[in-house]
Fold:
Amino acid sequence: MAKKTLLFLGLIILVAIVIGLTWGWPKILQQEPQTIKIGVIGPLSGEVAFYGAELRNGAQLAAAQLNEEQNRYYYELVSFDDEADSSIARQRAEEMVENREILAVIGPAFSVPTLSAGEVFQKAKLPAISPSATSPKVTFLGDFIFRVCPSDSYNGKSLGEFVVQDLGFHKIAILWDETHAAYSGELADAFTQRTEQLGAVVIKRLSYQSGQTDFLSLLQDVKEAEPEVIVLTGYASEAAFIVQQARNMGWNIPFVGGDGLHVNELIEKGGEAVEGVKMTTFFSSDNPDPRVQDFVSSFRKRYGMDPGWAAAHSYDAMRLINQAIEKNGPSREGIQKALAETRNFQGITGLINFDENGDVIKDVIKVEVKGGAFKVLF
Amino acid sequence: MIEWWSKERIRYILLILAVSILPVLLFGLVTINYSSTIAQREAEKVDKIIISNLSNQTYFFIARAQDIVQSLAHLPIGKIEKETLESVYRNNTFRDFYIFESLILLDEKGSVRMLYPERKEFLGLDYSRQPSFRNVKEKEKIFFSGVEFSSVSGQPVIMLAVPIFQPGFPKTLVGVFQASIRLQGLSSLIKEFGTNEKTALAFLIGQHGEIIAHPDYRLVKQQENIANAYPLLNDKILKQEKTEGIFQYSSREKVEYLVNFQTIYPTNWKLITRQEIREVLVVPLQLRSFLLIALIFTLLIAAGASYNVASYLDRITKEREKIRDERNKEFQEKIEALEKFQRVTIGRELRMIELKKTIKELEERLKTSKGSPPKNNNG
Structure:
């Protein structure tokens, strides 16, 4: 009798142990990933919110893909709106720095906010990658500030070579955006320097304000100087008006621009007038590379639109941060160190290497508006 | 004997009470669980009312804008005047916001022929590459764009484009009427329904998941997408095969939500309401917690009382056994004494009986010897 009782009790204990172990087993196997917060800063409201939204969406897509691909880290993006304003960008940067959970930052998008926010990031040793700030001044912010797009001095040089050597223009007029002088003015300066080295002449250089829609008198002024080409170093919204109004004047002069023109807004607002407008840029969704096409289709599926270069660069920036965390672990200093040591990272915008100043080394691509779309010029 | 105030009696009472309360509590729990289901169903009904109300108002907002633009498109193109556009612009509001951001008349090639608010530099501009014009030109029917952000106000708008046909020739496109519709009023509408992040949330998304109206207007202004803002909810909605429905999902933070969604035509927007299940079931869950605690206490009391009663009964039994043993011993001793006495008394009695028997035999022999002279045994 006693033996039977003992046997029964033993059986119950055994069953309990088995249930206990099997109950806990999946939890042991499915270890919760560590949450990593990454700050995203850009103009999420205002006239240039489009760029900020693109930047955020590119980074979000990369984070979502990384969260599915691996189970070690869960990337959570925290968005900050700098309204493309330097003082607001500084405030947001201070908020990000104070939040010790934020280990790295993607942004800001524009050069002026990057210069003010970058100082804060550098001082607090919070690594930041700007996907699109191209001002040469960003180069000297410090070793915690990186960017995945080439600087304006590099872009201006490439744009100058494109206009003079490839397209053969020698009498050039420049229209630049005074509101975004840190980008547009710097690009115009670097372009002028290179074209003059190549023997061309900038015969007219005029500025306009962001949001301006009437360019008739400005164009009249430029027309009187009789240039062979007009180079636009600002953004697409104003460029679309400039080209349309030039065509409405009956002036069929060629237009060439920088990366700021390479957004769908140029084609939608510019209509047929922008046919033939050429530009240098960093990313094209036409690129047949399967990696690029995968990215384009994922972006389209998620957001119902084609990605621009800002989205592509922030996508690369997010993947670079992931690589840095995988290499040195989740810490601000570790990420900075790993980013500085980046060699031949294959991004969708090309092969990425950083120089000693955190500037990216990569080629630009040349694009033309043809048949209502951007086509890569090989 | 147990007195009425005795500990033993209290123990018995507690035990009986606990045992009687147990089924009541169990029944209560079952009832509460059932009432949770009812509460959830009620919440779903309320959700449905809210969502149908919101979707109706959203639908009528769009339908109203569409009607206005269509009525403009029915006018002969040459008879549309600046004053007509101004009147339409100024006299149509939705929740204190002008419905239209701009009204633009395009010719059949997509050139701007007239617009309000008037801006001369826009006249003659080529809009033929804008998706709204392209779609209307190709399909010759009304087109609603996705959410765009006005370069004038920076606020979210959608473009509505309506074809203008030559009177009497319904296939001859002579122009397109394009209206930019402000969406701020929809966020105001949604906010007014008292929805907030904690208890309930209602928001509107466009065809591609872009957030069109939300109580937190920043999400709209920042062109946020449901895929970014509520990724797990988005996954669930994408899996839904129907155009409307109710489902539950759990966020990454393990918060359970009750979600109701409905598609709004013709824009194919989705209106979504979401509320925390624990908020829906707050009363039943509180009652259930109370009952569970009461059940645990009752069980503890019952267990304690049972243990006490059992110990008491055990003690009593042992005491009784002890008394019984003592009594047995006493009884045994008495039996032994009695047996001893019996042995003594019965032995004497038997001897007496034997002696009497001997005397009787001797008397018999004596009688016999009186009839004949006794033999001289000596000689």
About this structure: The CA atoms of residues 102 and 180 of chain B lie 5 Å apart. The radius of gyration of chain B is 52 Å. The mean pLDDT of chain B is 82.
